[in-house]
Fold:
Amino acid sequence: MGVELKLTDKELPVSPVFVDFLAHIVKKIPFSDAEWGDQLSESLSDTQTRVAESAKNNIREILADQDGVTHIARSYELLVALMTGDLSKLKDLQGKFHFINIIGTPRNGGSYLTKELYRMLGFDPSAVPNGLAHDGFPEAGPFRLEKNHNSWMLSLQTMAEYLVMVELFFARSKPVGGKIQVPKKLLKGPYAGSFFYRVMGESVENILTLRHPVTSCISTYEKSGGLPTDGGFAVRGNIEEWIRRDLVYTGTDADEIMRMDYFDAYLRYWEQYHYFIATTGLSANRNTEIVAYGADRMMDTVRRYGYRFGQRQPEPEVFEVNDKRDRHSDWVRQSEPVIQRVTEVWSRVGLKFPASEVMECW
Structure:
């Protein structure tokens, strides 16, 4: 008995991020003015909206170009490979590219490390497209199944598209240590740890960035326009939406979340995220470095990679830290048992949580 399954681009349309990337390739538009590496920005980005709006026009031009059609076909080839476990299709990718994933909650210094690793490899970070370097793509998150949406399929498809983007963007890059180095801010990695580990290859390298939940929370609400006047939780941007989404995923009533104090919601999200790091397969990769937030530690990490990438005197840009240690002392006390629980969970899977460094509250 033979069964044929047929899915078209109607059920699995090309993602707007991939369309935007291919539009640059097909129309030979240089990648420039990427803003993902801006460590100090406190404004919400509208990049996703702009990319989605331009996708309908761009896809027509891409499909009218033979190279564009070839690149899209390659993404669907890799999607089928991921769906069926055809590892032979991944072998060449894993042998050619070495992925360095920078993983951590938002506002943890991950953008800085990603940007500086690209600089140490000789790239101008502003010329590295957002979808290739930053944390919005490929997609991963708590599982959702609803009308016309299966989040597992979305993860498979955007990963296939991301791999094509890597092939195209790094086509002329020189190997370092036998492979082409590909830094990637992968904030969404913990939601599907084993997936990223197996697809990117078991030589994949992880850098885990850690920051105290209080200063992470302060930076989050500053990014979103300030702490709400009533101290309650609010959704004004992507990070706060991820907090809401993750709490709903683990059983918190949606209406209850919107009645929670801001830090109560954030702290619960912070704790869950760090449990995901320990429990979804990332910890199977022992090629992992843990970097606590702080100027010296961040810049020293960049220098080590710079030497490894062949820089004679690697000098990173200054990592800017605004001292927030005298704020919300009650939140600091509230965080202590949470940090202790995360430390214990990490220790059970062989990860050492640097509690004393995190407790510096930078």
